[in-house]
Amino acid sequence: MPRMLDVSEDVRAEIGDEEADRLLAGENAPGNYDCTSCRTPGDSEQERTSTVLFVGEETAVLAFAHASCIPSQVVQVAEEQLKGAVRSITGEAAAPAAHRPQAVHPGHHPGHGMPAAPQEQAVLGVTSGLVLIGDELHPALVVEPTAPIARPGSLGEGGDDFLPLLIEQGFLPVSAVDQLPPVLHGWSVLLAMGQLHAVLQPGTGGSGQAAWWQAHQPLQVTDGWRTAANKSHKVLVFAAPVGSIGQQPREDLLRDALDKAAANGRLVAAAMPLAGT
Hints:
Strands 7-8-9-14-15-11-12-13 form an 8-stranded mixed β-barrel, surrounded by 4 helices. The longest helix is centred in the last third of the chain and has 13 residues, at 251-263. The protein is built from 6 helices and 15 strands. Mean pLDDT is 77; it is low at 88-120. The chain folds into 2 domains: 5-90, no CATH class; 104-275, no CATH class. It is α+β, with helices and mostly antiparallel strands. Residues 25-45, 93-117 are annotated as: Disordered.
């Protein structure tokens, strides 16, 4: 039976016309599925459904989501993360619980990041939490490196260029956390299968998106955070230099740290749409 599937041109180009036509005809597409964005049931026979293709270096995974949650698209994902997603889908053994990140809220997630001074890789710590602006709670990520960030090509002797580099990319300075920052086009937050994977930035030479921050392994976010993100379809991303925020155990303390960093001129922000799921 034909399915109500959306297959974007990018997805069709990756999987081929023959496979795309089989999907649309209902041969290889599931009727019922769990939306990889909101994690609630979907039915491709009854409602518009997006095909989302996650592509790694060697592996590709086709997922399904409510079209109202996300559009059909191709998302580049690190091979190790994609293999982890495949293991979770096929039911293979997961990592021991002691080695998995805890689903705390706010959650502090170290990941790969930008070059630090002098010539080493900085770790970007990402804390997830809900931030109250006006009368509404918004899903937010707070990014803070573990070391001063050097401008690419420099010897790291010019201080910390983290905020200037982000401002050049379109982040805006924040003097008070009291209004929503504008959407930064070309950037997005990848939430796949209910887990946080990466913050994506525009690729070079029109090559799509690349990971600016990438989790060492997919990370859980709370139901409240995910619900708020699916409601607004965007995430607020705040960034501050090393030593500005710290690992705050509660959201009220995280907000206090954000307010202090903003008042000291050490905070930038941008809103980013959800990418993938």
